[in-house]
Design goal:
The protein has five helices and 32 strands. The protein is of the alpha+beta class. Strands 16, 17, 18, 19, 22, 23, 26 and 27 form an eight-stranded mixed sheet that branches. Strands 1, 11, 12, 14, 15, 28 and 29 form a seven-stranded antiparallel sheet that branches. The protein has a six-stranded mixed barrel with strand order 4-5-10-6-9-8.
């Protein structure tokens, strides 16, 4: 960036709505397409793409307001049940691909991918609008609401030579945020007053948490960078009084994509006894009957998670959650009637240990991809919340934290004369431009030569940091203790082989019809019976 002024952090304001069929979650509004279609979506700390529901995700047995329940705003003065790609003049289709997220937890589904214009927050709010962003239309109800990925990794598709940048990367490349970083807390509908989520790109809001001095390095697996050790879990005011629910350290992923906390069967059994939970074998959820529910609300247990990569108390952070953070309701299509449940899931292996969205109601996470570290803080609540205090996270380029009119300005730490700095910069820039031209020429030729080569010989464009590449999860199969390494490239490959592939809700009756392509009104028409097909190499 040289000596140019760097931008201020970008505050992505919450929608003021509470959505979800597995809890009451603070959502964020995005605008997709031309003309714009609006959606309320959930931030994903594990993903990097933008997913929005499509009409095929709502079927006849769903409630009449299925679209609204899935976060879809009315479009063109009418109720909408999902993204209408054929109504967007800026939509450019990529194809039907596996969603590639949360496979280790048993989530599945395909997405109809394309490029389109995406804006943040409602119209005329001042939010940025970026063209050519990767968007997937989803029908699966595994992801009931749309997703907004917070990570900077690119998306890789088999029919493109180069990775496609994420929204965060585009914000940084277009000088709209100071760094590849964010601060996020999920918000809490059970607090009085309710407090929506908070999301800041390129910085954080220090008014939303009680700070601590601990910082943790990114995990070695670039698909699980927010990995943190759980040293212990204790609870007070339970049906059994004060209890220790876990004493053996585990490594868990902080992941806002999913609502629940995933722990070992032993720990889940301890929760079950302390809170009077009932396990439902059909849904794998822990239910709370009316009598126990009333008693727990009266007792208001507090659950504390001790987080850190060592057992040294000086190097750990304690995050405390009230019972309200676990007092959730599951709705259709999970249950016909609204049902009280406790957001706890049984993990069958260590790749499934997860601190989900329920945890982030009471925790604030700051992720800094340029320094490769993150921190977790106790979320701050009070009846009259203070004004936002937005703090920039600057890139590791010698910038001092000076701000002027909402922007941060760099400051040289060395005493070189300005003319000398300018001369060095110009010379270095010329050399870099020449090298870049040679590399681009080399990789374009290589891409053309290898397009028909065996998949195992394909490689991504060089120079992409490890955390930024789009790899498949290197986890174990569900219900198995044995880990299997996936071979082959990091590219995703188009699903199916059907003529005119499309999406369908995973709870719909499947009927496959062969129709002329001219009969289709949208690219989402025909059925793909499985959204998780992969090539033999695991891609």
């Amino acid at each position: 960036m040289g000596n140019d002024t760097i931008p201020a952090p970008l505050v992505f304001s919450a929608s003021q709505s509470w959505d979800g069929n597995d809890g009451s979650w603070s959502t964020f509004t995005i605008r997709v397409g031309t003309p714009e279609q609006n959606f309320r979506v959930l931030p994903s700390t594990a993903g990097q793409e933008i997913w929005v529901p499509v009409p095929e995700g709502c079927i006849a047995s769903d409630p009449s307001d299925c679209g609204n329940l899935r976060g879809v705003y009315p479009y063109d003065g009418k109720t909408s049940s999902g993204f209408l790609s054929n109504q967007s003049s800026t939509w450019k289709s990529i194809g039907l691909y596996d969603l590639g997220l949360e496979h280790q937890l048993g989530y599945a589904g395909g997405g109809m991918y394309g490029f389109d214009t995406v804006g943040l927050m409602i119209q005329n709010s001042g939010g940025p609008t970026l063209s050519g962003q990767v968007v997937a239309g989803i029908a699966t109800k595994d992801f009931y609401l749309g997703i907004f990925g917070l990570g900077p990794k690119p998306s890789n598709f088999s029919n493109f030579d180069y990775p496609q940048p994420s929204y965060m990367r585009s914000l940084k490349d277009q000088n709209k945020i100071p760094s590849l970083s964010y601060g996020y807390t999920a918000g809490a509908s059970y607090r009085i007053p309710q407090l929506p989520g908070s999301l800041t790109f390129g910085g954080y809001d220090s008014s939303r948490f009680n700070p601590n001095q601990m910082s943790f390095p990114f995990g070695a697996d670039d698909s699980r960078v927010l990995s943190i050790g759980i040293q212990g879990i204790t609870a007070t005011n339970t049906l059994q009084g004060t209890v220790s629910l876990m004493s053996t350290e585990i490594l868990s992923l902080v992941d806002s994509t999913v609502p629940q906390v995933w722990l070992s069967r032993t720990v889940c059994d301890a929760f079950e006894n302390a809170f009077g939970l009932q396990y439902d074998n059909k849904t794998d959820l822990y239910l709370v009957n009316d009598t126990i529910h009333t008693k727990l609300q009266t007792l208001n247990p507090q659950i504390s998670f001790v987080l850190g990569n060592t057992g040294d108390p000086a190097e750990t952070v304690s995050i405390s959650l009230p019972y309200g953070a676990f007092d959730l309701q599951a709705k259709s299509p999970i249950y016909t009637n609204t049902t009280n449940y406790f957001p706890l899931r049984r993990a069958s292996n260590d790749t499934q240990y997860t601190l989900g969205r329920a945890f982030l109601q009471e925790a604030y996470v700051i992720a800094d991809y340029e320094h490769a570290n993150f921190s977790i803080h106790q979320a701050h609540f009070e009846s009259h919340m203070p004004s936002q205090t937005i703090v920039a996270i600057l890139p590791p380029e010698g910038f001092a934290h000076n701000t002027t009119n909402g922007t941060s300005t760099p400051q040289n730490s060395k005493g070189l004369p300005v003319a000398a700095i300018a001369g060095i910069s110009v010379g270095a820039a010329a050399i870099l431009l020449l090298l870049a031209a040679v590399l681009v020429y080399f990789f374009r030729r290589r891409g053309r030569r290898n397009r028909e080569a065996p998949l195992a010989e394909l490689r991504l464009d060089g120079g992409i940091p490890q955390w930024q590449q789009d790899r498949w999860h290197y986890g174990a199969e569900l219900m198995s203790e044995q880990k299997h390494e996936l071979d082959g490239p990091t590219l995703r490959h188009e699903l199916g082989g059907q003529k005119g592939p499309a999406l369908l809700s995973d709870d719909a009756v499947v009927k496959v019809h062969e129709m002329p392509a001219s009969d289709f009104e949208s690219p989402f028409r025909l059925v793909v019976t499985s959204g998780t097909q992969r090539n033999k190499d695991g891609s």
